[in-house]
Design goal:
Blueprint lengths: L2 H10 L6 H11 L6 E2 L1 H11 L6 H13 L4 E4 L7 E4 L6 E5 L4 E5 L24 E4 L2
Parallel strand pairs: 4-6
Antiparallel strand pairs: 1-3, 2-3, 4-5
Length: 137
């Protein structure tokens, strides 16, 4: 991804392009494959891959600003930890979740078919439908 594209993502998210935010954006969006992460796991990845120091609050605020601007999607996993993941793939799609490795894996939208879904309550419309399939060994 070009530097101007990174700067545009930051600015469209309402963020000033500081060195830390540019590094976070490069790490998230300069990749070929979808990246799933928690704020904490992103902090660990950044510590390994860059020499820049990041406050967890900076990572948290940047990630949430990207989500609000539509550059990331949020995936809530229910369970004993109620973990929130973020996803660089913002298209409608589904996930496998491996609780042993804490890995979230994309499933193409066309690989799941719905024959029938309930009608939305009066005055409401269905925004999207997401399937999370939990895995175990």
């Amino acid at each position: 991804m070009k530097k101007t594209s990174i700067l545009n993502k930051l600015r469209s998210s309402g963020l000033r392009p500081t060195k830390q935010r540019v590094e976070i954006a490069k790490f998230l969006f300069n990749r070929d494959k979808t990246f799933h992460f928690t704020v904490e796991s992103l902090g660990k990845h950044l510590a390994k891959k860059t020499t820049t120091k990041f406050a967890l609050a900076t990572i948290y605020n940047t990630v949430h600003a990207f989500k609000k601007a539509g550059h990331l999607s949020e995936v809530h996993l229910r369970g004993k930890n109620n973990t929130t993941y973020f996803d660089t793939n913002i298209s409608n799609h589904h996930h496998f979740y491996d609780s042993e490795t804490s890995e979230l894996i994309d499933i193409n939208d066309n690989e799941i078919k719905f024959d029938k879904i309930p009608k939305a309550p009066n005055g409401k419309t269905i925004k999207n439908l997401e399937v999370i399939i939990n895995l175990k060994n």
